Amino acid sequence: MGLKRSDRREFLKRGAALAGGLGVAAVKPAMGQTPGNILGTDELVGYGKRSRFVKSVRIPHGGRPSPDAFGLDFHIAAPLQDSVGVITPSSLHYMGTTRGSFVPDINPAEHRLMIHGMVDRPLIFTMDELKRLPSVTRLHFIECAGNRSSSRKTTVQETHGMTSCAEWTGVLLSTLLKEAGVQDGGSWIVAEGVEEVKGASSIPMAKAMEDCLLCYGMNGEAVRPQQGFPLRLLVPGFEGILSVKWLRRIKVVDRFYMTYNDYGNLSQDADDAALKMQIGPKSVITYPSGGQQLPGRGFYQISGLAWSGGGAVSRVEISTDGGRSWTDADIRGTAHPMAHTRFSYNWNWDGSECELQSRCTDELGSIQSSRAQIAEFWNVPPGQPFRVRGHDNSIQPWRIDRDGSVHNAIS
Amino acid sequence: MFRKLSVAYCFVALLILTSCSTVPTTGPSLGTPVSPSQVAGFDLIVGADGNELPSGSGTAAQGEAIYQARCQSCHGADGEGLSSATRLVGGSMQSEGRPIRTVGSYWPYATTVFDFIRRAMPADAPKSLTDEEVYQVTAYVLFMNNIIDREAILNRDSLSKIEMPNRHGFIDQSNIQ
Prior knowledge:
The complex is a heterodimer. By secondary structure, chain A is of the alpha+beta class. Chain A contains eight helices and 22 strands. Chain A has a five-stranded mixed β-sheet with strand order 5-4-13-8-9. In chain B, helix 3 (60-70) packs across helix 6 and helix 5 packs across helix 6. Chain B has a single domain (30-161), classed as Orthogonal Bundle (Cytochrome Bc1 Complex, Chain D, domain 2), CATH 1.10.760. The interface between A and B is large, with 62 and 52 residues.
């Protein structure tokens, strides 16, 4: 798509020459390879495992040990640089929690969800009862409000790893709210998990009724303990802290409740706080990205992820000249609402220093801003280092040096 | 976005009204009804206005010993903390670089201090303090921040009336993140 016809011919010609040069001497024919075997243990028969040659792992977010000396800071970032497609494997899904490294060991047979407050019929549900209710399955990203880039960070895992995307299965929260019967004036809910006061957040009723999910399934199996087993609230497109893990209680209330968690919204005005919960349009190139090395000039498929709390991604553009000119990237597959969307762009690197950027537009027409645009909005003098206020959904620049090394280009 | 949500909500609300009034048995009717006393045992949230605060009272003088025994190892003798996350006292929202958020500099409501301590602290044994002890420790934390006197009695009424230093500093986020 990004290749002009002449480029493509050149690419094919060069590819053929490359193959011819290496073919006989260096590459063993596939048929001749004799790998060892992975023994079929009972454990591997029961639950599969990836190849020992695949090393992609999560890392502590923000360069801090995780958990820290007190087991209090447990934020871990997903390896987006290795991702393909749009699903983050459950084992690699980013994680943020206020419970330190302690993950509750919940027996689902004993777990209950209570729904009460300003409702006609306060109810308690067992997990079995929840699974009998009509279910939906949807792709949704979750992103930590603190997922931000800065000049100090090197890789895309460090700059953007606090977001992931999974296929979530569960019951629409609206189904339960209807069962309980929301009373007049019930305009917010407070959702509480086992994290209690630190995991209780106020969510506007309009959002609760629109698309919030009570999830027991993730990527085709039970939600993982680190992600809230046996039950997690999912608030699509809103900052991750609202997607309460180990959910056990929904209280319908008549106001923005200003719980400890809600302090993070930095506003006491209910409408203002609600508007700040939504994640803006965002994208990042995952290949090539910071810390990677291109072997030389020639063909590359630039690839990355785009998402927005405002709905589906409608367009992703690529710049290879530091934001001066933009070309449409290909959207790979279907762009789902509030879900990571894979984009790509076929590109021939000519070996000169250049800067790659991506820019997302969502179905509402909101366009991802550059750091320069945000700086201008806040009257930060050009060239002065600054921290993006609120959610950071700014455009991420990657610089490729002549030696093929890729670097974070934020100054 | 929110206009869109509101419209959607009105539509859903209309559906609820319709379904409840005309065909009450169409829902799955799963779940077990809960009595108010069952809810009470579960519902420990205290909102900003303090309406849900329990009975009981305490002073900082009474809370000092509990603080030293149960809180000091992480929060320090004077609330200085072992890290920014455990600091309770001092700091400023106007600091250069990242503001330092503590109970004194950041929290807009004293009721949340009670709520937080009652449900989340001490970190190694949450909910092990009695309501009386929570009032006492809350008083001590506020005392360390020079918000109340050492002998001031905290209870449902007096705690709700406390005006925190950052009570009105919360709307403008421009200096905060």
